[in-house]
Specification:
CATH architecture of the largest domain: 2-Layer Sandwich
Largest sheet: 8 strands, antiparallel
Number of strands: 30
CATH topology of the largest domain: Nucleotidyltransferase, domain 5
Distance between the termini: 45 Å
CATH class of the largest domain: Alpha Beta
Helix content: 25-40%
Number of helices: 18
Shape: globular
């Protein structure tokens, strides 16, 4: 579930934290694996020149010329694979995936007594003895990980947000579940002051806040959770407990909550910015040997909702709401009777239960486990590092397998990248249409373009090199609409097309297996895996155009969008020529909306399917245009803003589909959304 590294005897050692089939926690020290990078050695380089090479590397001078004892060498400035984390480098080389099973044969490891570890088993072994199982067949199951969901309640001054240096923690609710079980094995609430009991729940009362916090810490260590969940616990609950303990005790005693007794939990700033949310200052909690899985952050990342408050999210997905306690009532209830504090305890417990229910209902933990397996990254990377690490891992694994090296791009903060033209958005013929409007969509457009045209880091070639090799255009190489050259698959198949082909093929097999799977737990795993395969494929395009990370390649990203623009225009020309009465009224990125005239809905559905099949013939193999839906009627207010009744059959519309207008915009109030709908 977790991986990091430490120093042992002056050398780095990998630490693998996991769970056995019977639920015991394990810490495995893996020795003898050392970090490394690749560089070009100059002509005439010999082993006895190692000292000079090391000096050049340690100085980080990036000087092209270093003088050595017997002459002058020119070092290539390009460094390969230096931007791969040590842990990820280890996993790639040893063929270990995220959250997969590892076997140690008897006699290949040494048991250690470690007073500094909270794990039930501590062993040490060489990396050469590890046996890594992939996630097929019997190894697809998940270990019985212990999950702790918790929530805290604090007092606060009227109208103000709690401040750790002023406002005490008055209740902490804990719900403990073993993965694979349907019901929690314990529901416990720790209360400051007296409290009436709650049937089927354990209520523990304490006279002082100090006793309450220490009781929480002791309970946490006793439960020894593998996964800690809650709602917004990274930016509030955990942070507040740590800061409050510092204020009361004058030290970080409660911060040693990981599986290493002598190491503090790390709290890091996580500054992000994007179009949807703007600039955000959040926190990232790193506990050695444990995974913090904040349900709020997962929901916010995976779903588009008008509000991410727990009450709204739970009502939306579960049909459940929080207990009816207003924020302003918390202090009154705490200062009230034992029955009042019981009501507050029920409120606190519900806030700990709802994240568990959301995790189960939406298969969030299973989906992220499968995503870690498919992309080959540690589980904790998925929330901490974003999408690009997934693509990097897949590319590096395939490169390692096929004998390529991945160049390390040295991104400098503040540097700029030449912008390139994005997708086409055809002018919108604004209006209210009372005739059927057909929508034709490309299936996975950008991924299809990369595969069909063999676009990859490993296939780009310069005009000069193509001429030197005697390559023929449109046979040995293609020229993209914006002027870049890439060799064809008959010359060399690119890494990215290879990865995409493997992912898509695997997803087809998984989707076929889902149809015949009767076991509910296995069904959830397979669903999570097919979703992970889809997300993994989509991440590969994004990283080619990302300006601040690992594998920026403007020539690939801009070539993809140039093909997309060309293809949208091709659809417009082909359809309007084939069907003279038709008119393309709007197009955006990978889809077009077509008015075939005032014809019955059933005829529009038939012509839409026919037009998709006919137009597909104008594109390269692997690029498919599909008839997905019909809008009738249809309101088009501007680019990226429209609404209509969504039909896939002639009997009844499927839903009201709305894009971009106030009904679905998160910056609109509920009244405006409801009124417009």
């Amino acid at each position: 579930m977790h991986i990091d590294h430490c120093m042992r005897g002056g050398r780095p050692a990998i630490r693998l934290y996991g769970i056995t089939e019977s639920g015991n926690s394990v810490l495995c020290y893996v020795t003898d694996f050392l970090p490394y990078i690749y560089i070009h050695t100059p002509d005439g380089f010999q082993p006895h020149h190692d000292a000079q090479l090391m000096k050049w590397l340690e100085d980080k001078s990036k000087s092209l010329v270093n003088v050595v004892n017997d002459g002058q060498f020119v070092y290539d400035e390009t460094i390969y694979e230096s931007n791969i984390d040590f842990e990820l480098r280890f996993m790639i080389d040893i063929k270990i995936l995220g959250v997969n099973w590892i076997k140690l044969k008897k006699g290949t490891y040494e048991e250690k007594y470690q007073h500094s570890s909270r794990c039930q088993y501590v062993v040490e072994t060489s990396y050469e003895t590890l046996i890594s199982h992939d996630f097929s067949d019997q190894w697809s199951r998940t270990a019985p990980v212990t999950i702790l969901s918790f929530d805290i309640e604090c007092t606060a001054q009227p109208g103000k947000f709690p401040v750790a240096q002023l406002d005490p923690v008055i209740q902490i609710a804990c719900v403990i579940l073993v993965h694979g079980e349907t019901e929690p094995c314990a529901n416990i609430v720790l209360v400051l002051g007296g409290c009436t009991g709650i049937p089927s729940y354990t209520v523990r009362s304490y006279n002082t806040e100090e006793e309450l916090l220490w009781a929480w810490y002791d309970l946490f260590i006793y439960v020894d959770p593998d996964v800690i969940i809650g709602y917004n616990i990274e930016s509030f609950d955990i942070l507040y407990l740590v800061d409050r303990a510092k204020f009361l005790f004058g030290n970080n005693s409660l911060s040693k909550s990981g599986r290493n007794k002598d190491e503090y939990t790390k709290i890091e700033d996580n500054l992000t910015t994007n179009k949807a949310y703007g600039f955000r200052d959040t926190k990232r909690i790193l506990m050695h040997g444990r995974a913090v899985f904040d349900i709020y952050r997962v929901i916010e990342r995976e779903f588009k909702l008008p509000s991410y408050k727990l009450d709204h999210v739970s009502d939306h997905f579960l049909g459940e709401k929080k207990e009816d306690v207003k924020y302003s009532d918390i202090l009154k209830l705490y200062d009230g009777t034992n029955d009042d504090r019981q009501r507050l305890a029920q409120y606190c417990l519900k806030d700990a239960l709802l994240p568990l229910h959301l995790m189960s209902k939406l298969s969030l933990l299973i989906n992220y486990i499968e995503l870690a397996r498919v992309t080959g990254v540690p589980f904790v990377y998925l929330l901490a590092c974003g999408q690009q690490i997934r693509g990097l891992s897949q590319i590096c694994r395939t490169a390692f397998r096929d004998g390529y090296l991945v160049e390390a791009i040295d991104y400098q903060e503040g540097s700029t990248v030449k912008p390139y033209e994005g997708a086409t958005v055809l002018d919108a013929c604004v209006g209210y249409y009372t005739v059927p409007i057909a929508t034709l969509d490309f299936s996975s457009l950008y991924l299809s373009i990369m595969m069909a045209h063999n676009l990859c880091y490993t296939t780009q070639i310069t005009p000069k090199r193509a001429k030197e090799m005697g390559f023929a255009k449109d046979i040995d190489y293609i020229e993209t609409p914006n002027g870049y050259l890439f060799v064809s698959q008959m010359v060399r198949r690119g890494l990215i097309p290879t990865i995409l082909s493997e992912l898509i093929s695997a997803r087809k097999c998984i989707k076929a297996a889902i149809k015949n799977e009767a076991d509910p737990e296995k069904y959830k795993i397979l669903e999570g895996r097919q979703l992970a395969l889809k997300l993994s494929a989509n991440s590969l395009y994004g990283m080619t155009g990302a300006t601040k990370r690992y594998l920026l390649c403007v020539s690939i990203a801009s070539s993809i969008t140039s093909y997309g623009r060309e293809m949208i225009q091709t659809i417009k020309e082909v359809v309007e020529k084939k069907y003279p009465e038709s008119k393309v009224i709007y197009g955006d990125t990978d889809s077009v909306m077509i008015n075939f005239g005032d014809i019955p809905l059933e005829d529009a559905l038939r012509i839409g399917r026919e037009a998709a099949e006919y137009t597909t013939g104008f594109f390269k193999k692997l690029i498919n245009l599909e008839f997905e839906k019909m809008y009738f009627p249809y309101l088009l207010t501007s680019k990226k803003r429209y609404a209509g009744l969504y039909y896939t059959n002639t009997q009844k519309y499927d839903k009201l589909d709305v894009k971009g207008i106030q009904i679905v915009r998160r910056d609109s109030c509920n009244f405006i959304r409801d009124l417009l709908k």
